[in-house]
């Protein structure tokens, strides 16, 4: 029976990193997968995380199961980070999940069973796993316009028109809370108000994917869009990932937060979310959630984490600036100043699939076929040679 099974295509992004690891070129650079890297191309464990792990090692008393919705103190931390003081706690149900991906799948299964008529509207483009997760859950999805014709800015009018003309009341809309993957293009605070108004007028359910809080402008600043939406509607789902902002990729730490109009609706929705979890993975892994909760329960560790997060964010900003300046100095005539208006790890470089191929084969520089670059994969010391390589394939 297994003889009839066809090989599935590899993950386009994760597959590139396998090829990168196998490349013997000592000057190779990986700008593909969305993982933060330091100047040496490493993804080290944060000091705040190490310190929290030591505390846990010394004090952890049991490996007993967590409850279905996870650690209570972790769930309170998620609520504070995401919503701040803006919502009554009893209107928000938070469940600890295995990463942001786990959160998205729980949200998708919940929508499929509890809101069976809802279609989900995704930005075009979006993270490739989004349509795959929704399809796996059996949801129907549609796309709305996001990227302008210049491929460097948001087409807000196109986005709002697509939603106004085509979305039906009761549909859901996927939004990236900040640091849009793959374009780095985020709505401005003013844009968010207009988006929120259309969501309210059309009675859409916002599903906000929040995987890069703190990578755009700061922890609180990056929540402005999400909180603006919540000023206009009383229902939403937020999928949090702490993979990037705590550097906890392999620990699988995330959360799904459901905002309901009142405590009764919140309690009922929570019970259905728990049902989804039971048939997926029963209950979440403890360690990653315990790390986050340990850091945020300790003033000193919290300060250290915030500094480390700021260091990551500022390095990305610096690399964006240095890349734009260095590209200018190559005299190739390509203006990359649009990168300065974009947020987070990613931007669409404008490189074609052929140019991306050439960068890989001739220079050991790995970029996703769409031309999406992970800015954090650049290096200050290698910026000149990197920009010369980019200029050479673009000429
Ligand atoms: N959502 C977006 C937009 C992402 O880029 C990622 C990245 O991995 C995720 C969700 C999933 O995060 P996690 O690794 O925590 O599952
Ligand atoms: O977009 C990225 O690069 C990150 C990491 O199947 C990632 O979100 C990429 C592909 C994938 C899972 C995570």
From TrEMBL:
Look up the EC number in the record and give it. Answer: 2.6.1.1
User: Sorted alphabetically, which Pfam families does this protein's record hold?
Assistant: Aminotran_1_2
Q: Which residues form the Aminotransferase class I/classII large domain?
A: 27-390
The alphabetized UniProt keywords are:
Aminotransferase, Pyridoxal phosphate, Transferase
Q: In Gene Ontology terms, what is one molecular function of this protein?
A: L-aspartate:2-oxoglutarate aminotransferase activity
Kindly give the InterPro entries that the UniProt entry links to this protein.
Aminotransferase_I/II_large (IPR004839), Asp_trans (IPR000796), PyrdxlP-dep_Trfase (IPR015424), PyrdxlP-dep_Trfase_major (IPR015421), PyrdxlP-dep_Trfase_small (IPR015422)
Top EC class for this record: transferase
Query: Is Transcription regulation tagged as a keyword?
Result: no
Q: Which GO terms describe its biological process?
A: amino acid metabolic process
Which cofactors are named for this entry?
pyridoxal 5'-phosphate
Q: Which NCBIfam families match?
A: PRK09257.1 (NF006719)
What does the subunit section of this Swiss-Prot or TrEMBL entry state?
Homodimer.
Q: Which family does it belong to?
A: Belongs to the class-I pyridoxal-phosphate-dependent aminotransferase family.
Indicate what this protein is called per its UniProt record.
Aspartate aminotransferase
């Amino acid at each position: 029976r297994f003889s009839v099974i066809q090989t599935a295509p590899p993950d386009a992004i994760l597959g590139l990193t396998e090829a990168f690891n196998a490349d013997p070129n000592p000057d190779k650079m990986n700008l593909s997968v969305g993982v933060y890297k330091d100047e040496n191309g490493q993804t080290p464990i944060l000091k705040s995380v190490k310190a929290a792990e030591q505390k846990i090692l010394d004090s952890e008393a049991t490996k007993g199961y967590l409850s279905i919705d996870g650690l209570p103190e972790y769930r309170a931390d998620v609520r504070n980070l995401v919503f701040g003081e803006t919502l009554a706690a009893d209107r928000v149900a938070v469940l600890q999940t295995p990463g942001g991906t786990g959160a998205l799948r729980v949200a998708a299964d919940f929508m499929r069973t509890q809101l069976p008529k809802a279609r989900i509207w995704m930005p075009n483009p979006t993270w490739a796993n989004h349509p795959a997760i929704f399809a796996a859950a059996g949801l129907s999805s549609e796309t709305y316009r996001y990227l302008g014709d210049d491929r460097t800015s948001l087409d807000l009018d196109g986005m709002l028109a697509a939603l106004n003309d085509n979305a039906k009341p009761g549909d859901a809309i996927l939004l990236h809370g900040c640091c849009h993957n793959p374009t780095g293009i985020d709505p401005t605070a003013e844009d968010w108000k207009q988006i929120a108004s259309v969501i309210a007028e059309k009675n859409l359910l916002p599903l906000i994917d929040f995987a890069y809080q703190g990578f755009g402008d700061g922890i609180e600043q990056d929540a402005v869009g999400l909180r603006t939406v919540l000023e206009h509607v009383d229902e939403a789902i937020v999928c949090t990932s702490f993979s990037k902002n705590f550097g906890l990729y392999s620990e699988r730490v995330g959360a799904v937060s459901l905002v309901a109009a009142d405590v009764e609706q919140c309690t009922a929705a929570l019970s259905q979310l728990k049902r989804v979890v039971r048939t997926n993975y029963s209950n979440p892994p403890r360690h990653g959630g315990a790390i986050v909760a340990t850091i945020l329960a300790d003033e000193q560790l919290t300060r250290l984490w915030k500094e480390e997060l700021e260091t990551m964010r500022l390095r990305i900003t610096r690399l964006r600036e240095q890349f734009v300046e260095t590209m200018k100095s190559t005299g190739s005539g390509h203006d990359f100043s649009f990168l300065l208006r974009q947020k987070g790890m990613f931007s669409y470089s404008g490189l074609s699939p052929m140019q991306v191929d050439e960068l890989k084969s001739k220079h050991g520089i790995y970029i996703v076929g769409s031309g999406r670059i992970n800015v954090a994969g650049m290096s200050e010391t290698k910026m000149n040679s990197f920009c010369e390589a980019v200029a050479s394939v673009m000429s």
